[in-house]
Every structure is written in structure tokens, then in C-alpha cells.
Design a protein that fits this description.
The protein is mainly beta. The protein has one domain. Helix content is 0%, strand content 18%. Strands 1-2-3 form a three-stranded antiparallel beta sheet, with no helix packed on it. It is globular and about 30 Å long. The relative contact order is 0.24.
Length: 51
Amino acid sequence: MGRSDSKDTWGRELIWYCRSLPAAAERDGFAVASLGEDGLLDTADDIRSWE
């Protein structure tokens, strides 16, 4: 995995969760999220691996 692999479609860094996991992601031991097109956290366009 290279540096460009850690960015979302909009060129922002992906958010990696390894310790403080959302409850729905605990089974996998890690989770990944993107802020989506608007770049804001907790909005309708966010993309989350556990959803």
C-alpha cells in the first residue's frame, strides 16, 4: 500500500481507526472512513467501512 492508497477519491487522507473503534467495527479490529465529498465529519456523504 503506497501513500496515494491512503487518500479518498477527493484527495483527502482516509481516517483509520485501530484502537477506539466504532462498535460496529470491533469484530474486524480496524475501520476506515472517508469524509466524503463535502470534507466534513458526520455528514450524510461520509463513507464508513462498518456501514
